[in-house]
Write a structure and sequence with these properties.
There is one protein chain. By secondary structure, this protein is mainly β. The strands form nine sheets. Strands 2, 31, 32, 33, 34 and 35 form a six-stranded antiparallel sheet that branches. Strand 15 and strand 16 (about 200-210) form a beta hairpin. The chain is globular. The chain starts with a helix and ends in a 5-residue tail after the last strand. The structure holds fe (ii) ion.
């Protein structure tokens, strides 16, 4: 990893700033109207303490508004108990993904009875039923105002929490928001549920899991939910005593393989369970049905080493060599048999994104976008944008020296002529320039259309969402 990146990518706390009009190079498409919202860490240090992992930092929201070729920007921290308490006490006080507060043995014992679940929702943005939610892997979702980025508060569903660990990647279809949640206990369960337009949560199916898996996402087709239990598993007792940071309670046990559990999306009934070779993933991409088969595209790794590579100590080391995630197509034979896996491309990819609104669950969906690694600079953090054509396995890329792009978000052109007729929006850290810029690429050939320069270097974030202006097509 290059020296210049270390500080700007993860360590330098971001400022809450607002800019009416960013300086634009190139030409913003006139038709691009709406708002890009992004979530990710904005602060990794509290006093002398530092969070340990990319997935730990305090949530910061970023907003880019587009109108008539102009772009405005604002960044604001999510107002959470976890951050307020840390700022007040000058130390980390809530446990997060891979960082625990310093605790005496007595305090650790007390934590068994009085465990404080963090509300630091720094992973993704949910937009559902006119609400905007900052989401993470604890079952706490924080509502915010998309205009001001002010925090409204933890969204309270009417029912009790359905579990402690969920995914930051719900699926949306037919007016519902679907998700999977794990309930740890003496008899742990993986539960599925859906939320309706009145924000009422309805439980769907569930199945037992003696040693639950770490799951960051799941698959959905028109008729099925697909839960992949990677063999990165935890004994729920370990979480009860919580002697280590959350993720360090999980162990890689590849002999378990990676079972795929298929549930009926409408009734929740468990349809069947299928065996597959051991692999690990954060992200499911598209999934669809083809006759009596389910096709599930996943960014897969042979093991879970990627989790430990995201510790800041590793990310800021000179000999960084990130494991490559590969877009892999898994075929689930509903009539019986093992799950088959077939790589769709050689390229390294993470933070995968498709035209979800237009092509999720669509067998014709063809293009997957993401961040990746340039073959000539494999010792860096993700340093290019990649587009994979899943039919041909070919890729297009965008890269520049010392530039580290975030998740690309596809925005469709009005009256488009094809799946990739639109632009990709990505916040890129320009480490040499000590600032970030919002990059606008033609989604067809990944050629630059425009960039808007930010007043600061934005910490490398996770996921975002584009919300079209009401009057935009
Ligand atoms: Fe994610």
């Amino acid at each position: 990893m290059p020296e210049p990146m270390g500080e700007y990518a993860f360590l330098r706390r971001n400022d809450e700033v607002s800019v009416e009009r960013l300086s634009v190079q190139g030409r913003m498409p006139e038709w691009l109207q709406g708002t890009l919202l992004r979530n990710g860490p904005g602060q990794m240090t509290v006093g002398e303490q530092r969070f340990r992992h990319w997935f730990d930092g305090f949530a910061m929201l970023h907003k880019f508004s587009f109108a008539a070729g102009r772009v405005s920007y604002a960044g604001k921290f999510l107002d959470t108990k976890a951050r307020a308490s840390a700022e007040a006490e000058g130390r980390i006080t809530y446990t997060d993904f891979a960082t625990d507060p310093c605790r005496s043995l007595f305090a650790r014992a007390m934590a068994m009875f009085n465990h404080r679940v963090t509300d630091n929702a720094k992973v993704s943005i949910g937009h559902f039923a006119e609400r905007f939610l900052a989401m993470t892997e604890t079952a706490i979702q924080v509502e915010f105002d998309p205009e001001t980025l002010d925090t409204v508060g933890v969204f309270q569903y009417e029912d009790d929490p359905v579990g402690q660990m969920t995914t930051a990647h719900p699926h949306y279809a037919d007016g519902y928001m679907y998700n999977v949640v794990t309930r740890f206990g003496r008899a742990s369960e993986v539960r599925t549920y859906r939320v309706d337009q009145r924000m009422r949560r309805e439980r769907l199916g569930a199945f037992g899991a003696a040693t639950p898996s770490y799951m960051h996402s799941f698959g959905m087709t028109p008729n099925h939910l697909i839960v992949t239990e990677f063999p990165l598993v935890v004994n729920p007792l370990a979480l009860l005593f919580w002697l280590k940071p959350f993720i360090e309670n999980f162990a890689w046990e590849p002999r378990r393989g990676t079972p795929f559990t298929v549930l009926d999306r409408h009734t929740g009934a468990v349809a069947a369970r299928f065996e597959a070779e051991a692999f690990f993933a954060f992200h499911h991409v598209n999934a669809f049905e083809r006759g009596r088969e389910l096709i599930v595209d996943i960014v897969a790794y042979p093991d879970a080493d990627i989790v430990t590579h995201y510790y800041l100590e590793r990310l800021t080391a000179a000999d960084l060599r990130l494991p490559h995630g590969r877009l892999t197509r898994f075929t689930v034979p509903l009539s019986g048999g093992r799950v088959r896996a077939e790589p769709l491309a050689d390229a390294c990819i993470e933070l995968p994104h498709i035209d979800y609104a237009g092509h999720n669950m669509d067998p014709e969906q063809r293009y997957t976008y993401g961040i990746g690694l340039h073959s000539e600079r494999p010792h860096e953090f993700y340093n290019q944008l990649v587009k994979i054509d899943t039919r041909t396995g070919t890729t297009a890329t965008w890269h520049e020296p010392d530039c580290f792009p975030g998740e690309p978000i596809f925005v469709s052109a009005p009256d488009r002529r094809g799946e990739d007729d639109g632009v990709l929006l990505s916040v890129v850290l320009d480490a040499a320039g000590a600032r970030s810029f919002l990059l606008v690429l033609d989604a067809h050939d990944l050629q630059e259309r425009a960039r808007a320069v930010l007043p600061q270097a934005v910490m490398i974030g996770f996921h975002g969402a584009f919300v079209g202006a009401p009057d935009a097509s």
